[in-house]
UniProtKB/TrEMBL annotation:
Name of this protein: Angiotensin-converting enzyme
Lineage, uppermost ranks: Eukaryota, Metazoa, Ecdysozoa, Arthropoda, Hexapoda
A GO molecular function held by the record: peptidyl-dipeptidase activity
Species, as recorded: Apolygus lucorum (Small green plant bug)
Uppermost EC category: hydrolase
Cofactors required: Zn(2+)
Amino acid sequence: MGSLGPARWWEDCHGLDLSSTPDIVSGRQPRAEMRRFLVIAALFVSRCGAYDRTFIEGANGNLGEALQFLREYDNEASSMCTRVTEAQWLYVTNITDQNKKRMVDALSLQAKLDRVSWQKAIQFSWSSLPDPMARRQLNMLALKGRVALPQDKQEELTKIVAEMKEIFNRARVCPFSNSASSQCDLSLEPELTRVMANSRSYEEQLHAWKSWRDATGPKLRSRFINYVEIANEAARLNGFRDAGEQERAVYGVDDLMNQVSEVWSTLAPLYRQLHAYVRSRLRSHYAPPHRINPTAPIPAQLLGNMWAQNWKNILDLVLPYPGKRRADVTSEMLRQGYTPQRMIQISEEFFTSMGLKPMPVEFWHKSLLERPTNRHVACKASAWDFCNRRDYRIKQCTEVAMDDLLTTHHEMTHIQYYLHYSDLPYVFRDGANPAFHEALADAILLSVTTPKHMHRIGLLNNITDDYETDINFLLEMALDKVAYLPFAFIVDQWRWQVFSEGTRNMNTAWWELRSYHQGVIPPVSRSEDDFDPGSKYHIISDQPYIRYFISLVLQFQIHQALCTAAGHIGTLHTCDIYRSREAGRVLADIMSVGASRPWTEILRVATKGSATGLDARPMLEYFKPLSLWLRVQNRDEKMIGWVTSEQDSALYEQWSRGGSFRVDNCITTTILAVFLATCYSRYGFSH
């Protein structure tokens, strides 16, 4: 689920945890683990060096001229955004070649405006202007996107990304039982996704996993290499060292990599407990010859998702108390005669109960709430801001079901955000950082998903508040949230490494990160020709991914702040902020400033000074009962975590097949120092 913000079409969908280094060094296969340690240490060191960057700005320090430019830009950009968004809406709600052409033409015009605006913005000495709002707007414009590229290069980059998307979207594979009459026409959505979610056959899951990567990676690899080169060129023209540094800069904090790394280090023990529990249950299900080693990573195709990024689809295999499932209120919704319109009204009432804004007239007249029968539409739920301070819509092919009721609350949160920052200049009409929109929307769902809330809105008669039901609920949430943490962490770690260190051994680096942080390994041998990262749409479609990790952490911080304002008493996972005017005021304060202030300041205000950056504690507090339960369940496990054996790492490491890994003398010296210090601290020797 995503949102369509000003001039940005949401498509849905740096640091390293070295806390476990001593365990890695002392693993059962020291040579393999040492090689892994060297790679990770090299990556860490290469990213820790200081780098002086000269921002792109001119010599014009005239504040009056800067303000005049910003006024003109605000009008032009808002009008262009309206035009583009209308063209996008027309296409996704009526998919035809003609509407696609209109959309592409509108996007082309917007690209030209962005280029001209960037050229004007960088003429100002924006960092020395006395007006902080003007300085912030010009800063955001000067560092925006890839408009610094010459037009031919920009067109080439656009063409490469479009080709990669086309290859991805057109990829088809053969069915598992491929008879002579079978057609090789299975696509990722819905067929392969359904297989990964529902099949409990090791061989069928392996077939779907491998076939999808065979159909995408090899065809995408060379284009992705070209994409990396041009993206880096654009970043350097904007004053950055590489494209990864440019992607991180939009968060406006110097220590983003440290914050992300520290948070993951804090949350990793909870993930390892979940991993150990799930591995044990999978071992019980997948009998020999598909034995899962109790101290090893998990084969990547067994976790219910094509990328093992979310494990909620294997809930049936790991649920501890099957008779105590969370109530699905779908049947009650049907019994009460719910319609898509009523579901939207229920979602709206959630916000108005807290004193927030009702939906404008245009919303009810122009939103698409049900699947049309006379045309082809893109049904993925999304929220839309038409940039004219009047027109806001939701696009959702709504079914009367609990999951869709939750989705309507998610999308309605995006609309509330649009409404609250609508009076700001165009540049500021956005989330406080790239993760904030999704963080707020998912924070609201942490209230709506509680049995308490379903009872309060008349969809659940009896609240079953016993320990076993509680653990089931938290485990289901953990399979969705906690299991996603390492994948959300490593996607951009890998991409930033490619941007900074080059495209050699990309597949090896991908699986090094996944095995180290996520504890998953490929089920079959992989080579550099496979390019497994290309199986993930966000990577080949040029969409930064770290926002999903940051959003995961922020949503619990925001949830805790809202619950504190609401005066909630009890465990955090039982909190529902419905009807709390105090929580509504905090929510309005967060949303009304948009991107006009640094997100760290907004977070400080929302949390009453307790946080000025990412903080793992609220997420740990939310899952505390589950964490204690997992520790008891895992007390007899041989290992909490995993050791990647040489046999496992040989599935993907290039040096295992004659490849090589080279680091320069400076990095080698630093790695050696880190290694010796680790040996000394653990074993009492240093040579």
